[in-house]
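Feature request, filed as a ticket because there's no other form

It would be nice if the structure record came with a short human-readable summary line next to the tokens. Right now we just get the raw output. Example of a typical job, pasted below so the devs can see what we mean:
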Amino acid sequence: MTIQTNSRTQRSNENLAKSLLDFNLNDQTPKNSGKHRSHHRCRSHGTITSTKRSPKHEKADLEETPFIQAFLTYLSYTILHIFAHLRELLRRLKFDRRKGAIDNNPSDFVPLYQNFDGFFTRNYYLRVRDVFNRPICSVPGAEIELVERKSDDYNWTYYYTGEKIKVLNMGSYNYLGFAENNGPSSKSAMKSIEDFGVSSCSSRQELGTLKCHLELEELLAKFLGVEAALVTGMGFATNALSIPAIIEKDCLILSDELNHVSLILGSRLSGATIRVFKHNNVQDLESKLKKAIIEGHPVTRRPWRKILIVVEGVYSMEGTITPLPEIIALKKKYKAYLYLDEAHSIGAVGPTGRGVVEHYGCDPKDVDVLMGTFSKSFGAAGGYVAGSQKLIDSLKNTSHSHCYASSMSAPVCMQTKKTLEIIMGLDGTKEGQRRIEQLAENTRYFRDKLKKMGFVVYGNSSSPVVPAMLYMPPKVAFFNRLMLERKIAVVTVGFPATPLAGGRVRFCLSAAHTREMLDRALQAIDECGHLNGIKISKLNPPRTFQQVLEMEKNTSKNYK
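Raw output as currently delivered:
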């Protein structure tokens, strides 16, 4: 069926297309004009906007995958896949009878795993299951206690030996070190149990709003520099259930290709059309914005009711920071809306911990929806949405996390509130600022040493998430096991959580880490990196940790 458009609409599209071609991101002055500011009409909203040059974005370290590593990684998966099919054949012929080899359900039951899920679980995941889902039995601080476990059936089941393993924690999101069982935050949480118990047993819209919720929301809005805020009991649900309350059918979502799954789920639940742009690529984003405005809805050709740009502050797998000033400039230029997820940046980035908005010196009111979680820098749980009073009033009536989910428990709320007071300096001390500065120092030190040792390190220099590339699937598990032997717990990640050739170890820095702890970790990483053969950066030759220290010492002497 061909959809007819009237001549007026066609002329409008042609004129708009012509005007949009006069703009580009780096030079927003239209061609054939000597003026420094320009205006254009946005078809989707029908209003006049002004545009101006935005600040430059800090370049991230994203070294290209070496060809030989990519080739060997794909070859490894190919060989593994061939042998996996061979083992599947042996299972069907009843030669392989070990537990987990076949589905144990009766033949008249639906299979527990379907198609590739079961195939992948049996032949790929079970081989490396021991490096995932490790139980802990302590506070996730700078050091942590793991429960020792062993398996006698190829990682299908585990039994616990009763022993604990004390290790250095380089994997938890405890950025500011507030995940602790003593101190003012934890004492405030324990005290709240005497007043409120551990659960409100109701949703916020009914009888679940506690006094501490209102106090936390007021304090949070002041901290972020916006009119109002709304807290929820689960960070994942904050994204998954807030986006459908903000945007709906006949709207467009432009989502970064590396956005968290909670953002992806929320976008899908909204019913809006979703288009993905390249990671942190403002040129690709602008191109898709132009096309969306010119063409409108693909079926009706009518203007989109809303266009929402969805990005994260710090991307937890890449360690990259979003180019916020450029995205705000595009958002203003095309009259779109901006949703910013600051889960990994609030408290951890910026001179006073106010996230990437403060990091770039942007106005928080230029971001339509600010979102963050309390499970990282605050050592608690839950999340928040902040912005205008009108936005928050709307979410109180439309967000399922507010209307139907149980409210945030009082101990979690008080842990978050007290931590926020410390960060803001309202406790009368400079402890919050000290932790923020300590995290920044630890981040710079650790990232710099890794790069100088010859590792391929991703991300921005200000990001507390520091990924080092492993590439091949055997190295993902091998590196993790080697580090555990040296009493250091790390998080290694591979396919399908990353691209096929994107296996990596992700280090998360904390203000609780001392210089001695970081040096111990770097020494172990140096040894394990040598055994794995992953010091392959084109920017720095492979060096040992001691060589790096000696090199810096000599440089310092020469400078003096």
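Something like this underneath would help us a lot:
Confidence is low (pLDDT under 50) at residues 1-55.
The chain is about 40% helix and 15% strand.
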